[in-house]
């Protein structure tokens, strides 16, 4: 008799326990069913349905153009594939800034229509009202500080954030504001490693980094970047675990060649 092994789901509580134990948290993006299925089966702790879909799935230069409807479509596709990971979904640009009622409506749509587990918002004190309102509805919120890609036009550059003392102080204060508001975790993007380590020590919630050094609670990368599907993007923090671009292109070229030569399909590949 085969015993079906129950998959232990990752929850916000599990992540808190991991930080407490000093166990690192693994996080990766996914935007579609097939990829999410592989990522989840690998044992990933968190899957982020990132607004980076705007770049890698839709070809936009920034994350700004992607809509709430499009994020819900991607999130719902991912959720159908996932049995273990906690699925966090980005609230896209323009759906939460400056209007906490709008923020709550957006978060509720993501939770209801995509059946997501949590939402992520970029920013600190300036979006606290939105975070408070979303949390009051019982929706878990992950914060995001440092380089916040939705604010690219404000900063005008994708360089490292919080290198100066003043900006570093503000970032630490913002991290504490997000923790006190009730965020279950925090992403730090492209900030000095020393500062990120300090933040991770000073807050009790898990701090997950991308380009924020190793002395924090976990790491996140964009799946297309770490698999080497995207070629044009290679910041210092990115480790390519594969070169799928070359492998896939090779496979496509072989297929073309086999079709042209009449080698595919062969006798065994037809009815």
Our count of domains comes out at 2
Question: In whole angstroms, how far apart are the ends?
Answer: 38 Å
Please state the second-level CATH architecture of the largest domain.
Alpha-Beta Barrel
Structural class: alpha/beta
Instruction: Provide the gyration radius in Å.
Output: 20 Å
How many DSSP helices? 11
Helix content: 40-55%
H-E order: HEHEHHEHEHEHHEHEEHH
Task: Report the sheet-strand fraction.
Answer: 5-15%
Instruction: Characterize the largest beta sheet: strand count, sense, and whether it forms a barrel.
Output: 8 strands, parallel, barrel
CATH superfamily of the largest domain: Phosphoenolpyruvate-binding domains
Question: Which fold does the CATH topology of the largest domain refer to?
Answer: TIM Barrel
Strand order of the largest sheet: 1-2-3-4-5-6-7-8
Care to count the β-strands? 8
Poorly predicted parts: none
């Amino acid at each position: 008799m085969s015993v079906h092994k129950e998959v232990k789901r990752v929850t916000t509580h599990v992540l808190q326990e991991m930080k407490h134990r000093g166990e690192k948290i693994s996080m990766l993006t996914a935007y579609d069913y097939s990829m999410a299925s592989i990522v989840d089966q690998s044992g990933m702790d968190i899957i982020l349905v990132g607004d980076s879909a705007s770049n890698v799935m839709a070809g936009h230069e920034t994350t700004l153009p992607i809509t709430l409807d499009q994020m819900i479509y991607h999130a719902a596709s991912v959720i159908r594939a996932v049995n273990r990971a906690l699925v966090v979904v980005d609230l896209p640009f323009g759906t939460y800034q400056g209007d906490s009622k709008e923020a709550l409506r957006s978060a509720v749509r993501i939770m209801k229509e995509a059946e997501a587990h949590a939402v992520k918002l970029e920013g600190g004190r300036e979006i606290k009202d939105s975070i408070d309102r979303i949390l009051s509805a019982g929706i878990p919120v992950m914060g995001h500080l440092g380089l916040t890609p939705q604010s690219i036009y404000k900063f005008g550059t994708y360089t490292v954030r919080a290198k100066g003392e003043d900006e570093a102080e503000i970032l630490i204060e913002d991290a504490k504001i997000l923790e006190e508001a009730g965020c279950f975790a925090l992403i730090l993007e492209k900030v000095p490693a020393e500062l990120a380590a300090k933040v991770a020590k000073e807050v009790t919630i898990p701090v997950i980094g991308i380009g924020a050094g190793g002395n924090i609670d976990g790491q996140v990368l964009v799946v297309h970047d770490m698999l080497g599907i995207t070629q044009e993007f290679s910041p210092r923090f990115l480790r390519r675990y594969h070169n799928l671009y070359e492998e896939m292109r090779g496979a496509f070229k072989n297929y073309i060649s086999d079709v042209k030569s009449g080698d595919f399909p062969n006798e065994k590949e037809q009815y």
